[in-house]
Write a structure and sequence with these properties.
Blueprint lengths: L1 H13 L7 E6 L15 H4 L8 E2 L2 E2 L17 H14 L3 E6 L8 H18 L2 E6 L2 H5 L5 H15 L8 E2 L2 E6 L8 H7 L7 E5 L10 E5 L8 H9 L4 E6 L7 H4 L12 H14 L2 E4 L20 H10 L5 H16 L4 H15 L7
Parallel strand pairs: 1-4, 1-11, 4-5, 5-7, 7-8, 8-9, 9-10, 10-11
Antiparallel strand pairs: 2-3, 6-7
Helix pairs in contact: 3-4, 3-11, 3-12, 6-7, 12-13
Bound molecules: 2-acetamido-2-deoxy-beta-D-glucopyranose (4 copies).
The site of one 2-acetamido-2-deoxy-beta-D-glucopyranose has 4 residues, from helix 10.
């Protein structure tokens, strides 16, 4: 009996990845189609001067050098979300770090937040975890008059609506809260903004900026930067913070110049070599890895399936995590997505396809 139990333990451990890192992916909730945006394509597909209705060299003219395998999409569309999160699940990714605009009602923030919430619903369907990356810079961009009061309102919202979810990622026994900065709030302002949280979140900032974020900060996450691995090597080797989240990315190929938007213009050649390098470094140095990004088409850091690269990045992740899924499952997820769109007006077919998707995404759950 005892040896049987021991044997099943051995078998259980054999199904786990060889190494221990948890893989998360940074996700943007900010894409809109004409159907979801009052008849005009969302600005993240167009920037200042592109029109996805034009087909150029066989692909929709979007503000990116890369094109989603399923075409330009709406971030709040549950079929899109299931396709995206299904791929993450099959790659062995644990969940998402979701870019979150806050509760300020300016520009497209309210729509982004609504999409973020549709994605959070999707994480529950897929059995993935999530954590929020707060965009404190939005307080500047929206010229919020009382940034501290707005920041506190945002934290209260997170606490009542997201931190309560079973699948919100906890690190050191508290919800993990990432800030994409600090950019608008600094030093003691963060102590005031985080005051409403009980328990305090495990609060982490962008790399090498923790000292600008008050007393509650517990760590940092690395990000893409112009010097590629130079700053990263130093940060991994020397930065002494209690929560250290590594980064992996496929390059940086921004469309800002062509698209007529302001933004960082440095360049890191996009492709498998850059991903593999940053991926290996992250695995060597940290237990929590954030892949940047799932779908920032504007900056050219995408790992989701594109017409140009297919599932090449996901294949590398899938191999590392020891996921039982295969490339064939990626293909099935995409087939199901296109079938759902084809039969969008047929409730019977739609139900069959949703069931098929659900079965695929959960087929190994009981074994892990
Ligand atoms: C949608 O477009 C119509 C016509 O251009 C306009 O009157 C309306 O205010 C727009 N609605 C929103 C929510 O932008
Ligand atoms: C890192 O910081 C901790 C806590 O401040 C300290 O105890 C430890 O000695 C530091 N380690 C290094 C290598 O500096
Ligand atoms: C990734 O890098 C590792 C170690 O540097 C190397 O062994 C492997 O062949 C590379 N894989 C790809 C797909 O480039
Ligand atoms: C990762 O660590 C291994 C073993 O120490 C080393 O051989 C390899 O060069 C490292 N890879 C990177 C990309 O730092």
């Amino acid at each position: 009996m005892r040896s049987l139990i021991f044997l099943s333990f051995l078998l259980l451990f054999q199904t786990l990845p060889l190494h221990g890192a948890e893989i998360y992916v940074h996700m943007m909730p900010w894409f809109e189609t004409k159907e979801t945006n009052n008849g005009t394509w969302g600005q993240h597909w167009t920037m200042a001067n592109r029109n996805p209705d034009n087909i150029v060299d066989g692909v929709p003219e979007i503000a990116s050098f890369y094109h989603p395998e399923i075409g330009p999409y709406a971030s709040g569309d549950p079929d899109v979300i299931d396709w995206q999160l299904g791929h993450m699940k099959a790659a062995g990714i644990s969940g998402i770090f979701l870019d979150w605009p806050g509760t300020t009602d300016a520009y497209d923030y309210a729509k982004n937040k609504e999409n973020a919430e549709a994605i959070i619903e999707g994480t529950k369907r897929a059995g993935l975890k999530f954590a929020v990356v707060y965009e404190d810079n939005n307080l500047n961009l929206a010229a919020v008059p009382d940034k501290i009061a707005q920041g506190q309102a945002d934290m209260e919202y997170l606490q009542s609506n997201y931190f309560t979810e079973d699948n919100y990622l906890k690190v050191k026994d508290a919800p993990l809260l990432l800030d994409f900065g600090p950019q608008a709030l600094h030093d003691a302002e963060w102590d005031e903004v985080l005051e409403p949280l009980d328990p305090k979140a495990t609060f982490v900032t962008l790399w090498n900026q923790g000292q600008q974020a008050g007393n509650y900060v517990q760590g940092e996450f690395a990000w893409v930067w112009a010097d590629f691995v130079d700053t990263l090597i130093v940060w991994y080797a020397n930065r002494n913070v209690s929560v250290k989240i590594g980064v992996a990315y496929p390059g940086f190929h921004p469309f800002y110049g062509e698209g007529g938007w302001p933004g960082p213009m440095f360049y890191i050649e996009y492709g498998v070599p850059a991903f593999n390098t940053t991926w290996q470094m992250a695995l060597n140095n940290t237990d929590i890895i954030q892949i940047c990004t799932w779908n920032d088409y504007g900056e050219g850091t995408i790992i989701e399936p594109t017409l140009e690269y297919g599932t090449q990045f996901l294949d590398i992740i899938q191999e590392y995590t020891g996921s039982k899924y295969t490339s064939d499952d990626f293909r099935k997820l995409t087939d199901i997505y296109f079938m759902k769109k084809k039969y969008a007006d047929d409730p019977v077919m739609l139900k069959l396809l949703r069931d098929k998707h659900h079965a695929l995404v959960h087929k190994f759950d009981e074994l892990t």
